Input
Amino acid sequence: MASFSRLKSSKTFYLLLLAIISGLISLFALRANNERMVSLRTAVFQADQQNGDVQTALKNLQAYVTTHMNTDLAAGADAVYPPIQLKYTYERLVQNQQLQVQATNGQLYTDAQHYCEQQNSHDFSGHNRVPCIEAYVTSHGATITPIPDSLYKFDFVSPKWSPDLAGWSLLVAGLSFLGAAIAFISGRLIAIAT
Output
């Protein structure tokens, strides 16, 4: 009987040791996952600031975040949502929109002049044309459409568990700890029964 209980206790010890080692590996792997996400997120922000290849940087970040644990992009409860907001991309989009509006308004003003000249061809002073031009521009005014959030705001969801080093070592740690607990309890029950 003594050899059986010693075997049980050594089994419990090894399972507990495996749980501790796997748990430590999991902690380091989870930390590495987070650090890699931070470096990829920084690459996105740098590409945005330098007007670089933002799309490739975003794809790399998305591919990593969606396949690894502990890569949540939000930084705390008070974090901005969505966590990736490309400030410089937004500023470039606004600038392009303003250029388009200016071009459209310039053409609109020219069209208004031609229209009003035809309406009041006998008016050489332009006294009657100014209200006509103002009315034409107002009725045919260019509208500014808001820039869609999907062009400069992003969020990617990190899985609860992933089949990487962090995920597998966490699974092994959990199962080993459970096995050690069962072995310990069953050893105690056998000791009580005898």
Q: What stands out?
A: DSSP finds five helices and two strands in the chain. Residues 1-86+157-194 form one domain. The mean pLDDT is 84. The beta strands are 84-85, 153-154.
